[in-house]
Specification:
mainly alpha
Length: 103
């Protein structure tokens, strides 16, 4: 793997990490909503607050655009779809750059 391909791999890895943060945050929010986890626990509360602080700036612009669906929040799903699109675009550009360097 050459240096250019490695530079494209870094944002793809970061997007994978963000993907899993959003998945964990969504599952945690369901567990909290259905009272499976105790919100009185300081550890649970700190984890939930940390994940909310990471994901809230991503969700905010999407929540402004999406209509109100009642109690269902589709912004995590929209962000996950956008992450997949960006990953595919980065992988395609990385492939083009690396094959152009070979030719």
């Amino acid at each position: 793997m050459n240096t250019v391909a490695a530079l494209f791999a870094i944002p793809i890895i970061l997007l994978n990490i963000l993907w899993w943060v959003i998945i964990v945050q969504a599952i945690l929010s369901w567990l909290l909503a259905f009272n499976v986890l105790n919100t009185g626990s300081p550890a649970v509360r700190q984890i939930a607050n940390a994940l909310d602080r990471v994901t809230a700036p991503l969700y905010r612009p999407i929540r402004r655009l999406l209509p109100d669906f009642g109690g269902i929040d589709f912004s995590p799903m929209v962000v996950l779809i956008l992450i997949m699109i960006v990953q595919k675009l980065l992988a395609g550009v990385a492939m083009d750059v690396t094959t152009a360097g070979i030719a």
